What we know:
Elements: H1 23-28, E1 32-34, E2 41-47, E3 50-55, E4 59-63, E5 73-85, E6 94-97, E7 101-105, E8 108-114, E9 118-125, E10 128-132, E11 139-141, E12 145-150, E13 159-160, H2 163-172
Parallel strand pairs: 5-6
Antiparallel strand pairs: 1-2, 2-3, 3-5, 4-5, 5-8, 6-7, 7-10, 8-9, 9-12, 10-11, 12-13
Amino acid sequence: MTQGTGVFGFALLAIFCASSAGSALAQSTGCSLRPAVSAQRQTLNCEPGLSITIERGASYQLADRNRDGHVDSVKLNSKAVLVDVDSNRVKDGFEVVTPQAIAAVRGTRWAVDAQRNKTDVLVLRGRVGVNRVNARTGVTLGAGEGVDVDNGRGPLRVNRWQQPRITALMARLGQ
């Protein structure tokens, strides 16, 4: 992730490796499906230091933007994902792209919930840069902070999420 303005202003050029995350598709992207402990979610282990927990029924695609053979992005159209990136092992960062927002990091743990007209981003550990899809500037979130990104053009507002909201989203992801 580059710092400063223009951080997210580029067009996302992605090679989408899967249209959903069935075990065969996950494996074709270098990800393995962790045995499910719940019908409400599934977890993909994509490489050492990267795991993605996906809410049941989510509409998403895994992507390898730089074509190096490693998943480095999720295009999320609906429902929620929880991404855990170890910056000591995953050097080129990771992005979650929704219709409203791009959330990008070097190493952290965060959740993204894509809904019809907005995207909610919550940081559990580390720092995450978030901006509107068509914006050059955005906000940086720290642990416990979140932002709601709608289709508007106004500035994004960082909020400290209250525990009931955090608990509700994490429960959907089995956390």
